Amino acid sequence: MQLYNVFAFPIVRDQLIANTVLVAVATLFVILRGISRKIRQSAIGWDDACCLGGLLHTYGMLAMHYHYARVGMRQHVTAIPPENTVLIAKMLIIYQIVYYNAMVLAKFSYLFFYLRIFVSKEFRVLTWICMGCAGAYWTGSVLQVFLICTPFERNWNPLLPGHCASQNVAFSTIGAFNLVTDVMIMALPIRFIWKLQMSVGTKMALYGIFGLGIFISSITIIRIRVLTTVDFNDLPYSMIWAAFWSVTEPALAIANACAPMLRPILKAAFPKLFASKAKYSTQPASGPIASKSNSSKRMYGIDEEDSEYPLTRLGQEPGLADTRSLNEQSQDGRSQHAPH
């Protein structure tokens, strides 16, 4: 087997550097997520575990991207030893599984985050349905890795008698399901956020945070398009962009899954920016209107004990936004109602 300089081709060098930076950014976001949890003194949840698991799989993707360059990526198949070609084909099998793991863990991180903060029964049911769809995406993706060629060894030895289905079609189909699940996850909170007792500005900020997934979806679309151009008869040469986007996508997905959790960090770093401008009464709201509002808040709202987001205080005058966290509001409410 022959090894090559990973930076021999400028295009490969630039891709490796870009992906290294993106994975470093994803790592930073996960670290900040943990610090945010510490600031809020919140328990580590399944959303955090999935995010960390997705990051570890993304490290694996990046390591394999470097090793692809080491064994001849961007070289034509006729220019490298046969054992290099076999290794690249075998690595592709592992590469796919690690990629699917990274992506589904990023999806689960977002969905477990939804379950952590939203209390609406309807929303939670829809979230579990999305989890089922994400799980089905992962199951189908992994199964195609093992079923696309009969016998399995034909993945790296095309001279064996047997049959392989079109990998371009398989990759594109799986990519389409990946995109559909992303859109489902992004669209899920839209209607429910609008029903929350929040200022319009806060709602728009939430839409912006959750809408970051649109950018990830654009990466998914690019990756689907690139996968259709891979020539499996000259895999080392034609795979460079597929390998690049397959690291970029999970790295950005992990960072995106952490973005909604970073408000405590930003609040600590920029206290004036997040300082409350609202004035509150020292008396708790009462009466049938307040009771109805509180009921609506629980039906459509965010769990006050674990949310990263502010709500508009239901008893305040219209237009006054409460920038305190839900947890703080909840504690105030308990202290106001405590017996003296």
TrEMBL record:
Region (Disordered): 282-340
Membrane topology: Multi-pass membrane protein
Stretches with biased composition (Polar residues): 282-297, 324-333
Record Pfam families: Fung_rhodopsin
Taxonomy, superkingdom: Eukaryota
Residues of the Rhodopsin domain: 32-267
Keyword match rRNA-binding: no
InterPro entries according to UniProt: Rhodopsin_dom_fungi (IPR049326), SAT4-like (IPR052337)
Main location group: membrane
Family: Belongs to the SAT4 family.
Protein name stated in the entry: Rhodopsin domain-containing protein
Species of provenance: Penicillium brevicompactum
